[in-house]
């Protein structure tokens, strides 16, 4: 679910920005060199699921001071 929340910019000003939220368990994993987070997506229109395809976005974050290679 997407909710609008306060987001603070580098200059200290605030804007309303869309944030993803979920009460379900999320996939997060770490290794010696990186952390990965998997965010599932659903295609919805007016609160109704519009197809059965499943999508996920993976975020990889390098652990400082390590070599990061995929």
Automatic annotation (TrEMBL):
InterPro entries cross-referenced by the UniProt entry: Serpin_sf, Serpin_sf_2
Gene3D superfamilies xrefs: Alpha-1-antitrypsin, domain 1
Taxonomy, superkingdom: Eukaryota
Protein name: Serpin-ZX
